[in-house]
Amino acid sequence: MAIRTILHYPDKRLREKAQPVTVIDDEIRKLAEDMAETMYAAPGCGLAATQIGVPKRLFVIDTATQDEPSALRVFINPEILHREGDTTWEEGCLSFPTVHEEVKRAARVKVRALGLDGKPFELEADGLLAVAIQHENDHLDGTLMIDRMSMLKRKMVTRKMEKRAQRGYKDQDEAST
Ligand code: GNR
Ligand code: NI
Predict the structure, then answer these.
(1) Distance (Å, whole) CA 166 – CA 127
(2) What is the pLDDT of residues 117-138, one digit of tens each?
């Protein structure tokens, strides 16, 4: 197991479209393990392979709260089959440290994916899990939460992230908020 480096906007690799996983072998199992470890260490409730510079279609999610047992889910080659309703959620993204902004998404989704065992499964989700599935699925297409914000907020966030990159991430993020 290893903690991988999470790419930060404006890293261009975050804009790459990820390719389907063709075989679930030891390499993919190791990648999924590393992604889970990286997500828990961050900490975050989801992580897409794109965010660690691996352009493959898989992500991990664990939306369990602190008092709940961990509930790691691995989604390989996910497809959102159905979206229903609307919700606005204050989202964060590990590729946009310190940014928390409201994003509108479907309130409920039905998703199909392969598990680590290679077997297809379907899941109907609402609440944070539905939001996280849409957020992670977006990463696999190179879509970021700024793409779903108002133009004004998008400009504020991109400028903040560009300044942060220019500083070489040396200062504490909190110092600039
Ligand atoms: O840790 C995360 N929290 C979060 C909160 C609300 C909506 C989406 C997310 S996903 C994010 C981790 C991340 O960047 N995944 O790509
Ligand atoms: Ni994200």
Answers:
(1) 36
(2) 999 999 999 999 999 999 999 9
> Does the beta carbon of 45 sit less than 6 angstroms from any atom of ligand 1?
yes
Top-level class of domain 12-166: alpha beta
Q: Which ligand is nearest to the CA of 39?
A: 1
- The CB of 76 under 6 Å from ligand 1? The reply is no
140 pocket-lining for ligand 1 (C-beta < 6 Å): no
| SS3 (DSSP) at 37 | helix
What is the Cα–Cα distance from 161 to 168, expressed in whole angstroms? 11
Q: Specify whether the CB–CB gap between 38 and 54 falls below 8 A.
A: no
CA dihedral 164, 169, 175, 177 (to 10 degrees): 30
Q: What is the pLDDT of residues 68-97, one digit of tens each?
A: 999 999 999 999 999 999 999 999 999 999
How is residue 177 written in tokens? 């908020």
Most informative mutation of 8, 62, 91, 133 for ligand 1 (most atoms within 8 A of CB): 91
Q: Per-residue DSSP letters for 81-120?
A: EEEES-EEEEEE-TTSTT-EEEEEE-SEEEEEEE-TTS-E
